[in-house]
Amino acid sequence: MLIDIWKIKTIKKNGIRTQIRCDKIDISFLYKDKNKGYKVRYTCDKCKSNKINITTSSTFFRENVVYNTLEFQICRSCRSRISEYEIKKTQINYDIIKKSIDDNKYVLLSKKEDYENSNNRSQTKLNCLCSNGHNFIFTWNNWNKGKRCRVCYEQDKKNNAVKYKEGFELYYYLVWLHSNKNYRKYSNIINPNNFQRKLGNKGYHLDHIYSIYDGFKNNVPVYLMTCVSNLRIISGSKNISKGKKSDITIEELFERFNQNKLY
Asked: Which tens digit of pLDDT belongs to each residue from 196-243?
């Protein structure tokens, strides 16, 4: 149902167009100026939702496919379903999906009848196993865009990151990788006051009490550098001024680790 129509008044200054006001206009202008960019507010007549939708007047009069008219308006969600099933007729056959899954060495677990009984096949969540045995939930639309197992993706990203790094760069990467993992697991111990981590000198930083620079120089194992006993939250300004310095000795690092045993 149409609610109202607005004409947007703008000015262009220094190459930038700025909106200065909105004028409410009569519905008759939609007939006269079909290609004008009037803003139209409406609610969906198909799903009967109370949500207010906004579009332009030109959308009502598309020459190829008319989704909305002055008598009947539909929202984007309903329009998507109509586009797929009534206009484009692109209901993907289950066997096509299964072949694509098989070709990628995945195993489709979802049953054919469950897929075919769904109301919106392209958005139906399907279940399968990847070639490494990870359970993977996906929709055909996402699969068709090339999206695959998230676990394998993260693992490949890590492997590639490690593969092309060496020396201090590799050590630094691995220390931060496991430091962040431990922080997520033990944040209640490392950051009991729940300070917000933020880049720059105004926020709070996750700091290595025995510094990464000294750890690399003295061949300290990554698991020692990233143990909870070597992690703390300090102000950004303090961390920046600290630089490469360590606030404890290597002997104290070993002692802290032996006392807590938290990785």
From this structure: 888 888 889 999 999 999 999 999 999 999 999 999 999 999 999 898
Largest Cα–Cα distance in the chain?
Answer: 83
Token output for 9: 């008044």
Q: Is residue 263 a contact partner of residue 182, using CB atoms and an 8 Å limit? A: yes
Alpha helix ranges (H) inside 167-225: 167-190, 212-217, 222-225
Cα distance from N-terminal residue to C-terminal residue, the chain: 60
Scan for tokens 């006269």, then name that residue.
Answer: 32
DSSP H stretches of helix in 65-163: 76-82, 94-103, 112-116, 140-144, 150-163
* Residue 226 · residue 182 · CB < 8 Å: yes
CA dihedral defined by 17, 18, 21, 23, rounded to 10 degrees?
A: 30
- With a CB cutoff of 8 Å and minimum separation 6, the contacts of 58 are 34, 35, 36, 37
Angle at the Cα of 55 (from 54 to 58), degrees rounded to 5?
Answer: 160
Burial 234-253 (b: 16+ CB within 10 A, else e): bebeebeebeeebeeeeeeb
Sequence-distant (≥ 6) Cβ neighbours of residue 190 within 8 angstroms? 182, 183, 206, 228, 231, 232, 233
Claim: this prediction has a pTM higher than 0.85: no
Yes or no: say if 7 and 38 are a contact pair by the CB < 8 Å rule. Answer: yes
Are 211 and 252 in contact by the 8 Å Cβ rule? The answer is no
CA–CA gap between residue 198 and residue 37 (Å, rounded): 42
